[in-house]
Amino acid sequence: MTLTELNLECNQIGDDGVKHVARGLRNNKTLTELHLARNQIGDVGAQHIANALRNNATLTTLALGENQIGDVGVKHIARGLRNSKTLTALYLYGNNIGDTGAQHISDGLWDNTILRTLNLGNNQIGGVGAQHIADRLRDNTTLTALGLSSNQIGAVGAQHIADRLRDNTTLTALYLGGNQIRAVGAQHIADELRNNTTLTTLDLGYNEIGYVGAQHVADALQTNMTLTKLDLWYNEIGDVGAQHLANALRNNTTLTTLDLKGNQIGDVGARHLTDALQTNT
């Protein structure tokens, strides 16, 4: 029996400790998952890990969340992405990489044909950074899950993402919760959702889309035939928004999970939804 998964999260390893981990990673032939979240490795530690990725031929999952990596550290990680032949999942949430860091990751994805899952949540990425990531969606043919939750992409960033989804044929899960995209951003995503045939999971929670945004999403559900999970939690849609969604549910036959918690739909909204369940089969 040989070790395939190592979890060292929350251990105050720091950049010096991760240097030793990286040294072992270079020649290791069995480890497939390495979890190093919340270890304060910083940009120096990120460089050690990136250097190790150049020689490692087995690691498929790397979790570096909340490590104060910043845009400098993520530049090293992006370089590692270019060289890695095995990494399929990369978690970089909570590292304050900003728009500059998002550009580095985008550059790293330019010729990467291996990565399937990328989590960049809670990284202070704005509309500009969203555009950098979106540009890769246009020609990337391997990424299936993209996490951008708890950033600041706004309606502009949502538009960039939506525009590139038009050309993408591989992304199945998109997480945009907590991005202040509001009704306008929801409309951009919904417009693309109408004709999208690959996305199965969409998270738009905590985006202040209101009942107007809910209507845009509901309209898209009338024609979309692939989405199975939709998260709209805490979006202030009220009973009017619930009615729009209920109308869509009468015709939609693919959605299996709908999260509407914290939306102030009240008894009226609940009645609209339960009425729709009578015909949703």
Compact overview of the structure:
The protein is an alpha/beta fold and 281 residues long. The protein is 46% helix and 11% strand.
Structural overview:
This protein has 281 residues and is α/β, with parallel strands linked by helices. The mean pLDDT is 96. The protein is elongated, with a radius of gyration of 20 Å. It has a single domain (5-277), classed as Alpha-Beta Horseshoe (Leucine-rich repeat, LRR (right-handed beta-alpha superhelix)). Strand 4 (89-91), helix 4 (98-108) and strand 5 (117-119) form a beta-alpha-beta unit. The protein has 10 helices and 10 strands. The protein is 46% helix and 11% strand. The chain has helices spanning 14-27, 42-55, 70-83, 98-108, 127-139, 154-165, 182-193, 210-221, 238-251, 266-277; strands spanning 5-7, 33-35, 61-63, 89-91, 117-119, 145-147, 173-175, 201-203, 229-231, 257-259. The protein has a 10-stranded parallel β-sheet, with no helix packed on it. GO terms for molecular function: GTPase activator activity; small GTPase binding.
- Helix tally? 10
Question: What is the strand arrangement across the widest sheet?
Answer: 1-2-3-4-5-6-7-8-9-10
What best-fitting shape do the alpha-carbon axes yield? elongated
Number of domains: 1
Structural class: alpha/beta
Order of helices and strands: EHEHEHEHEHEHEHEHEHEH
Strand content: 5-15%
Unreliable segments of 5+ consecutive residues:
none
- Largest sheet features: 10 strands, parallel
**How much helical structure, as a percent, in the residues?**
40-55%
Task: Could you tell me the CATH topology label.
Answer: Leucine-rich repeat, LRR (right-handed beta-alpha superhelix)
- CATH top level label: Alpha Beta
Q: What gap, in angstroms, lies between the N and C termini?
A: 48 Å
- Please count the beta strands (DSSP E, at least 2 residues each): 10
Mean pLDDT: 96
CATH superfamily: Ribonuclease Inhibitor
CATH architecture assignment = Alpha-Beta Horseshoe
